[in-house]
Amino acid sequence: MPFDYRNRGGVEHTEIMLPEGASAQLGDRSTLWNAVEQAEKRVDARVSREVQLSLPHELDFEQRQALVREFVQTAFVDKGMIADVAMHTPDAEGDQRNYHAHVMLTTRRVDGQGFGQKDRDWDKREQLAEWREQWAETQNRHLVKAVGPDAPKVTHKSLLDQGKAREATIHLGPTASAIERKGERSDRGDVNRDVAANNAERQALAKSAVELDDKLTALSPQTQTLSISLTKELAEYGTTMRRQVAAWKAEKVAIRPPAIVKAWEVRREVMSPAKAKLADAQRELERTKDRVKHVAGKRTTLASFIRNPQRAIWAKIREVHAMDRARLEVARARAGVKVREEWFRSERGQRFVTSRVDAARQAVQPAKAKMRTLERKIRRVEKRIGNVERLRERVQIAEQLGVKSWQRPIKTLSPQGFVRQLDAAVVKALQRATPQQLQQARQQVRSLARGIGISR
Known about the structure:
With about 450 residues, this protein is α+β, with helices and mostly antiparallel strands. It is built from 12 helices and 8 strands. The model has no long low-confidence stretch (mean pLDDT about 85).
C-alpha cells in the first residue's frame, strides 16, 4: 500500500542518519524501508522502533536540530542503527511549546553487507532507562549552552525517585487534547484535574503543618544552650535518622513481590502440555518407523519367517497397525494444539488471558505500594539528614567565629521545627561575618573534621 506524506504540514526538518560503513543508498527513505521489509522473513516481524522526543521550546530551530542530531548519533547511530528523523512544529490549535521529533530506528545492525542480526540488548528496560538518562543530560547541556546557567533543567527521574510526595498526571494524547480545546471535558482531563486538586490540597496541608509547627516552636519557652551541646545533639539526631533509614532499606529489600504474569507466559502454560504431547507422539512415530524398518529387514533373512509365510504376513499386519496408531496419536496431538491456538484467538480465550494478567498485576500492587511508601520515607529522611549535617557544620563555623551559645526552645512539637528555627538563627549570625572570616572558619571546621589542626 503506497502512502504519500510529502505535503504534510508541520514538518520542519527530516533526515536519515547512517552508521559508519552503511551503504549510501540507504539514505533514500523508500530504499531504506523497503530493504528493511525485505530483511525480515516472518510476517509478524517488528521492522522498526519509534522514539518520540519532546524538544525544549527555549531553543531555536538550529539549536533544536543540533540537540537532536547529537543525541540520535550517540545513542542510536553509533550503536549500528539507522535513524530516520522528522522534527515537527506545534499544531496550530495545540500547545505552541510542543516542538517534538519522531525518530524511526532499524531493529537490525547494519554494515556494508546490509542488515545483520537483531541486537536484543536494544529491547531491554535497562537500555531504555539509559537512553532516558542520556536524553535528559544532553538536553540540560544544550539548554545551559543556549540560555545560560539559569536555564531550566529536565530530569528522567520519576517523582518517586526525586523524593517528591506528589501524584503524577497522565498524558492527554491528541484525542483528549482536541476534546479539551473545544471546551469539553475528557476522561483523561478529568483524571488530571483530580490529580491537580489532590496535589494542591496535599501541598496546602503540608505548608500549614510547617507553619503551625514553626509558630508553636517560636512560642515555646527558650533556654540557652552551648554550641558544643547543640553539635552533639545534632550528631545524635543524624545517627538516629540513619538507623531508621537503614531499617527501612532492609525492610524494602526483604519485600518479595510476586512475579507479574505476562500474556505470553499464560499462553505458554496452556500450550506447553499440548505441544509436549505432540512432540512425544512424533518421537514415538519415528521410533515405530525405525522398529518396523529394522524388523522388516530381518524377515528376509530369518528362517522362521522363510519357513512360515503366514507368520510374516501377520507380522506385517501388526507393523501396519502400529504405524496407524502412532500416526493417529500425532494427528490427535496436532488437533489438540490447533484447538488451543484457535481458543486463544477467540473472545473467550482473550478474556482468560486478560483476567490472568490482571489478577497477577493486582496481586503485586500491595507489595509495590509498600515499596513506594518506604522509598518516599527513605528519600525524605535522607534529605533531612543532609539538612542536619549542613546545620551542624554551620553551628561549628559560628563557634569558630565566637558564637558559643544559642537560644533554643525547651519543648518542640517536632525535631524538624527545632532544626528550622535553629538554622534560621545560625544563618542570621553567619551573615554578620565577612566572606574572609567565613572562609577561614569553614576551612578550620573541615580540617578539624579530617583530624588536621590549623594554627590561628
